[in-house]
Amino acid sequence: MSVPQGQRSESKLEVFVKARELAAYTITICRNEKKFDPTFDFFTHELTSGALGIARDVWSANNVKVVNEDDLRTRLALQERAARRCNDLLSDMQIAQRVFHLETRRIRHWGGMAADTRNLIRKWRESDASRYRHL
Question: pTM of this prediction?
Fold first, then answer.
């Protein structure tokens, strides 16, 4: 028997899925020459690098096995950096919207992906901080 959608808890893997989807979507949209003038490759490179950095930081943080305080600090720092990169990406999206005249609905969708990813990262970080508070 399945659990109703409103009563489901978030999967621990959801943050990885969201970060990967955000990176893939960012790469896809930035490759679209109808939306992003190739003259501004330096800017689309920043957007894609930021999104890839989020996915990499999330992946790296998950691969830190916490056995001591230094491990915990490393893991929390990677999580924090990923969340901050989400904020940077959101800021860059606003610039992109203005410069490239992107539709509001596209920015809403793309920004929603970044905000959702950031919120999951923050929840994960809070959970880890609580889980390993004894270190």
Answer: 0.90
